Amino acid sequence: MADVTNLRSPAEAGLSKLFESARKGFASEQAISREEAFRFFEATGLPSRRVEAFKYTDLRAAITEAAPPAEAPSEDAARAAVAETTGFNAVEAVRLTFVNGHLVASLSDLDRVPEGVTVTPLNEAMGKGDARLKLLAPVEQVRQNPIYQLNTAFLADGALISVAPGAKPATPIHLRFVGTGEAAFSTATRVLVDVGAEAEFFLLESHEGPAGLTYQPNDALDVHIGAEAAFRHTRLNREGDAAVALSTLSVRLDARAQLETVNLVTGAKLSRHQIYLHVAGEDANAVVNGATLLGHGQLADSTLLADHAATGGVGREMFKTVIDGDSTGVFQGKIIVRQVAQQTDGKMKSDCLLLTDDGQMMNKPELEIFADDVACGHGATCGAPDEDLLFYLMARGLPRATAESLLVQAFVGEAVETVTHEGARAVLIGGIEAWLASRG
Fold first, then answer.
1. What is the pLDDT of residues 168-199, one digit of tens each?
2. Which of 52, 262, 327, 405 shows its CA 20 to 30 Å from the CA of 429?
3. What is the pLDDT of residues 207-253, one digit of tens each?
4. Of 161, 219, 171, 170, nearest to 195 (Cα)?
5. How many CB atoms are located within 10 Å of the residue 386 CB?
6. Please, what is the Cα angle at 167 between 163 and 171, to 5 degrees?
7. Helix residue spans in 86-224 (DSSP H)
8. Residue 203 class from Cβ within 10 Å (0-12 exposed, 13-18 middle, 19+ buried)?
């Protein structure tokens, strides 16, 4: 039988050339195994519809050209770009500012890091062979993901954040990612957060960029939550309207650890947010929510894998999607309960609100259970706004557009109201209101 050779797309061929030409300028190869990561990516290529996990988000078709890695911006360019952002800027926080994927120390608060927290630029950590790098990729399945491995291969900058055992800083850290430029570019950033036992830590994350520019951010956040520790995370995607934005969150939870993560998506032409959870310790608790508001032909994919490998874990996953115009929403969620994970309590749900007849929603919830003493379930709904509720509001003098906006806010608000930090929650609510106002 003749050997079958997969034809590489122009983007895949371009990525190979970019990797070979750029690798000499990258930080330590040994620290993160760039070569191994890229060879994995080359073997798989950009995922297409033939790959089950990317059935509804064909990256091979969406990414037609390989954008070159962005260079570090000038001081003036960085300041001008940051001046245009909003994100969580109104929330009191310690900022770590990344412009075009590079940490800008002059626009960061490296001298204001809270007591009990240490922040190390990732390039510095890789150069020194920091022992904490072994905590990267805390979930086994994430190592089999081509997008995550592409991030590893082209990783340009990031940070290591360590929270000392028992520390409970009141001020959150804000990861502020900003894109700027006049030509297409790509970025690859990685942030590792290690939360010590019995500590509590808030992390805010915002992503913003220019309109009309086809840039390609690929960011990853790796988190280890120690025993009886709590990690609370709020993420905001306001990428430019032509961006192809890829992101991965991977989290390991030790015994009685707590996770709260909420992601609001209003930006990017195409986005895919991947969440990998490994419940490694008993009685851990994870709340994973997402709110997505789409229009103008956007596609947003939320993909979740929750792997329960210890007894007594509790998982609550809720995703709300609002579809306007000819946009497309995607939710893929899978809960795995290992045989040892008895008494797991997992609930996963995806709800979609269709504001027009031209949009579409793809829901694919799954359960894979090997234990016999569990309480797990999943569900998905999709429909138009309730006409009876609209009539009720309009009968009290509200225009239809206002009534519809109120229903949308109530629908999406259920996913964001779990945000513990009051200021962060207000920003998300403001983002929802801004999106509704932009509908006209």
1. 999 999 999 999 999 999 999 999 999 999 99
2. 327
3. 999 999 999 999 999 999 999 999 999 999 999 999 999 999 999 99
4. 161
5. 12
6. 80
7. 122-128, 146-154
8. buried
